[in-house]
Specification:
The complex is a heterodimer of chains A (284) and B (264).
Chain A (H helix, E strand, L loop, with lengths): L19 H18 L1 H4 L31 H37 L1 H16 L2 H12 L3 H28 L2 H9 L3 H38 L10 H13 L4 H29 L4
Helix pairs in contact in A: 1-3, 1-10, 3-4, 3-6, 3-8, 4-6, 5-6, 6-8, 8-9, 8-10, 9-10
Chain B lengths: L22 E5 L6 H9 L10 E2 L2 E2 L7 H8 L2 E4 L13 H12 L4 H14 L16 H13 L5 E5 L7 H18 L2 E6 L2 H7 L2 E6 L2 E7 H6 L4 H8 L8 H17 L1
Parallel strand pairs in B: 1-6, 1-7, 4-5, 5-6
Antiparallel strand pairs in B: 2-3, 7-8
Helix pairs in contact in B: 3-4, 3-5, 5-6, 9-10
The chains are: A mainly alpha (284), B alpha/beta (264).
């Protein structure tokens, strides 16, 4: 028998220790963002530099990820493509968040018929397949990255509205909101200055997870030809353009952007879930 | 009231007088309508019918416009049961008080700091807590901050909704002392909503007993507590744990009382 006691089940205080997976993912994301920002300086080739003497090159010393059907360097294209591929979901989420938070907060604050009406509208949006809705919007307004972002923002807004409404209801039931009302603070002021900032940690965690989904959706649209247009090197578009090579045995033009999309989405989700856990921990 | 549910009259013909510096206790068990009365007074709830009159003026109307809200805030303030929940967790002590002060008058700089310090002194919050956040304060400190915030608009009436019920006894005593001081110094009238007769006895001059939305007895605290007229008041007083207190007997009397009420 040992005299010392080891507290095996003692709760570990989670401060900075997020674990190896989190750190790896965060590191990877930082790397991708750096790559996107520094692309003009670190990319070995221009993204649209055509070289007919080096078509379908395999990955190697000259071309890290090989080249595509026009002899363009895949690595450089992935680096440059990171810009459009990352900014797209960011814009889409920004737009969807403004709309969703507005709707959700209004529904929670006002209740009654406003809440019912907004709930019905969001229900209809939910019932309608997101991608189908987006394709419909694109059919009306024409294809292109801006329309794709706008359409996806409209499709994402109800999701964010539902989430906002639920956390706003919980927040509104806390008496500090009543205290502001008794002090004579106007309703819009309470919402903008006090309610939304108090919801923002929970919202932020949710948005990080949604970012991965948004990136995937935008890549999907580009793959289908509705989003980014050639000669852009948006990742979804790259996957689509590389398809022709698969039959001839050239996997890299498809695999490289595809893997990057998958890796970024997985990394964002792992970081996002951990982050929202952390942010939602209510201080005692 | 929700559809399909029978309407419950939560508060019915409640009326009382309060002079400046006076204190009224509103007692009753859970669901007796005392919190509804408090919330209607401060305008958080609107009566389905009837009116809320203060100093002869109808208060039930939801007053719109910045001036109306400001005027109302300077008349009545409220302190809530849950000290943590009633404070914005993002605001420090000075931000919280500063925010409340600035709503009433455009104070800034040194003037604002002085007003904040003054408020903190009046509820005996140590100046070192100035930049603390609610989660760093104790329960008693939080409730004192909530009282200070309510005082920022110099109200004539302060409604305390079970304001000390969530605190332990020693802290309760401190808060009650602070409230008595405020009442004496500022001449603020207090409406003390509580289920706790001991607390009411400590801080109130007058008491009103409510049962199922109706005020059933009203008078000077000592009179009512020592010589209760209504059966329910007697029951309430005998329910307080003390020497020779028998829970079984209280329960039996309670059942008898409820039976009588349902027959009536």
């Amino acid at each position: 028998m040992s005299t010392s006691t080891t507290l095996i089940n003692a709760p570990r205080k989670r401060t900075m220790g997020y674990g190896a997976a989190f750190n790896t993912c965060l590191g990877f994301l930082v790397l991708v963002i750096l790559g996107a920002v520094l692309a003009p300086w670190i990319a070995p080739y221009a993204p649209d530099e055509i070289d007919f003497s080096a078509i379908w090159t395999s990955p190697g010393a000259g071309h890290l990820f090989g080249t595509d059907q026009l002899g363009r360097d895949i690595f450089s294209r992935v680096l440059f493509g990171a810009r459009e591929s990352l900014i797209g979901p960011l814009l889409l989420l920004a737009l969807a968040t403004v709309l969703g938070v507005l709707i959700g907060t209004l529904a929670a604050w006002h209740g009654g018929w406003v809440d019912t009406l907004l709930a019905r509208i969001t229900d209809v949006m939910f019932a309608f397949p997101g991608l189908l809705f987006v394709v419909l919007v694109i059919a009306v307004f024409g294809k292109g990255p801006a329309t794709a972002i706008l359409a996806l923002a409209l499709a994402y807004a109800p999701v964010i509205a539902k989430f906002t409404r639920s956390i706003a209801l919980a927040e509104l039931s806390r008496p500090y909101i009543d205290a502001y009302r008794i002090q004579g603070v106007s309703a819009p002021m309470i919402c903008l200055r006090y309610l939304i900032p108090n919801m923002s940690p929970a919202l932020l965690g949710y948005l990080v997870v949604l970012f991965g989904e948004g990136l995937m959706s935008l890549a999907t649209l580009s793959f289908l030809g509705f989003g980014a247009q050639p000669p852009s090197s948006e990742w979804g578009l790259m996957v689509q353009e590389g398809q022709a090579g698969i039959i001839q045995g050239h996997l890299w033009p498809t695999l490289a952007p595809g893997l990057v999309i998958a890796a970024v989405v997985v990394a964002v989700n792992i970081v996002g879930v951990r982050l929202s856990d952390q942010l939602n921990v209510k201080k005692p | 009231m929700g559809k399909g549910r029978p309407a419950v009259v939560a508060a019915n013909k409640v009326s009382f007088d309060l002079a400046p510096g006076e204190s009224l206790g509103l007692v009753g068990e859970s669901g007796s309508g005392k919190t509804t009365v408090a919330r209607m007074l401060v305008g958080l709830e609107t009566p389905d019918s009837g009116s809320v009159e203060i100093a002869g003026r109808d208060r039930a109307l939801n007053r719109r416009g910045a001036a109306g809200r400001k005027e109302r805030a300077a008349e009545i303030q409220m302190v809530f049961q849950d000290p943590y929940g009633s404070l914005d967790r993002r605001l420090s002590v000075s931000q919280c008080l500063g925010q409340a002060l600035k709503l009433q008058s455009p104070l800034r700089g040194d003037e604002l700091q002085r007003a904040i310090t003054e408020l903190m002194n009046s509820v005996r919050l140590e100046p070192r807590l100035l930049s603390s956040f609610p989660h760093q304060l104790s329960g008693g400190q939080r409730q004192r901050l909530a009282i200070a915030r309510a005082l920022a608009s110099s109200p004539k009436l302060l409604v305390l909704d079970e304001a000390v019920s969530a605190l332990d006894v020693s802290v309760q005593a401190q808060i009650l002392q602070v409230l008595n001081e405020i009442r004496a110094e500022r001449g603020i009238a207090l409406l003390f909503v509580s289920h706790d007769l001991a607390v009411i006895q400590e801080v109130s001059d007058k008491v009103m007993v409510m049962y199922r939305g109706d005020p059933i007895e009203q008078g000077i605290v000592s009179d009512v507590l020592q010589n209760p007229q209504h059966d329910y008041t007697k029951l309430l007083i005998s329910s307080v744990p003390g020497l020779g207190w028998d829970p079984d007997e209280v329960m039996a009397r309670r059942r008898e009382f409820d039976l009588l009420q349902s027959v009536r």
